[in-house]
Specification:
Elements: H1 10-18, E1 42-44, H2 67-82, E2 87-90, H3 92-100, E3 104-106, H4 109-112, E4 130-134, H5 139-144, E5 148-151, E6 158-161, E7 166-172, E8 177-182, E9 188-191, H6 203-216
Parallel strand pairs: 1-2, 2-9
Antiparallel strand pairs: 3-6, 4-5, 4-7, 7-8, 8-9
Bound molecules: manganese (II) ion.
């Protein structure tokens, strides 16, 4: 008998717990979000692709999505933005934030941007396979405390058109935007790599989670990027 499961990678929970947070998972098909009023922030994790109809494009053959997951995460993102809750987006989470705010995605980097860096997974999830250059003065750069960082890369999609309201905060060697943030008082940051696989070995990745949790706790002075 098949037993349906809803799962989250342990790494996201461990990274949040190491930074002092108590993560709570939100089930698929959660209707009214008012029951989540206790939440101090929203982490949008990695996962499947997004239904490209959400940004007005026909699906590429490699694109895989789950409309229930899109529906839940789009609603959670709008809900968190309306409440000015801190948001940390990771991989698909960056893509969700970009699409919710009106941006679009490259659906398959290997076939549509073959001249670029190899972004899909190569080896273990923690393998450092390329670098990011951070935009100085930005919230992401402040969070990780570095101008350049080595990253893992487990994605075949990426930002095509950046949403209005988002600023680029990190780029890969091929120019792909791999970090974004919102201007203004609310801590909203998203990255295309997977810091939850690196927090125990790369201090900058741990600092990203610590900055997010600090913002959730209201203990961090807000920094408005120029
Ligand atoms: Mn990458």
């Amino acid at each position: 008998m098949e037993v349906p499961l809803q799962t989250a990678n342990q790494a996201y929970l461990a990274a949040l717990q190491a930074a002092g947070a108590t993560p709570i998972l939100v089930p698929l098909d959660t209707g009214d979000l008012d029951g989540l009023e206790f939440a101090d922030g929203l982490l949008l994790p990695g996962g499947l692709d997004i239904n490209p109809r959400a940004y007005g494009a026909p699906p590429h053959p490699t694109c895989e999505w789950d409309d229930r997951l899109d529906d839940l995460e789009f609603r959670l993102t709008r809900w968190a933005l309306e409440r000015k809750l801190p948001i940390l987006g990771i991989c698909r989470g960056l893509q969700v934030l970009n699409v919710v705010l009106g941006g679009s995605l490259v659906q398959d980097l290997p076939s549509q941007r073959p001249q670029g860096v190899t972004h899909p997974r190569q080896g273990p999830r923690f393998s450092l396979t390329h670098h990011l250059t951070l935009v100085s003065g930005g919230r992401l750069a402040a969070a990780v405390g570095a101008d350049e960082v080595p990253v893992n890369s487990l994605h075949h999609q990426g930002v095509e058109r950046l949403a209005p309201g988002l600023l680029p905060s990190a780029r890969a060697e091929d120019g792909l935007i791999e970090g974004v943030e919102m201007a203004g008082d609310t801590w909203v940051v998203a990255v295309q790599f997977h810091p939850e696989e690196l927090f125990a070995t790369q201090p900058y990745a741990a600092r990203l989670f610590e900055s997010f949790v600090a913002a959730c706790s209201g203990r961090v002075p807000t920094v408005v990027p120029a």
